[in-house]
Design brief:
single chain; 2 domains; 3 helices; rod-shaped
Length: about 100
């Protein structure tokens, strides 16, 4: 028998330790597996926090991208305006003595 192979009793003992319950019959194992299969990752509070952080980050990045696009669009529109030259009449400064 190799070192990494465990006996059936050792496997059941390990499963009992991992599940925190006593396993004596096949129905016990099936009930535990059904319970594990019914769990969803979103039930875990840490997963919910990461999902909220991801959502907030994506909304923030989308907002920044929109503002950046808007600012670039305004800058391009300003640069595309025609130039208007205006002459303002001025008089030479006079000095009084």
């Amino acid at each position: 028998m190799q070192n990494n192979e465990l006996s059936r009793e050792e496997l059941i003992e390990h499963l009992e330790q991992a599940s925190g319950r006593r396993i004596r019959t096949r129905e016990d194992i099936k009930a535990y597996l059904d319970e594990v299969a019914a769990r969803k990752a979103t039930d875990d509070p840490s997963v919910r926090r990461w999902q909220q952080a991801k959502t907030i980050t994506l909304i923030g990045l989308a907002t920044v991208a929109f503002v950046q696009y808007y600012m670039m669009d305004v800058m391009v529109q300003i640069l595309s305006l025609r130039e208007t030259t205006v002459f303002v009449p001025t008089s030479a400064p006079t000095e009084k003595s």
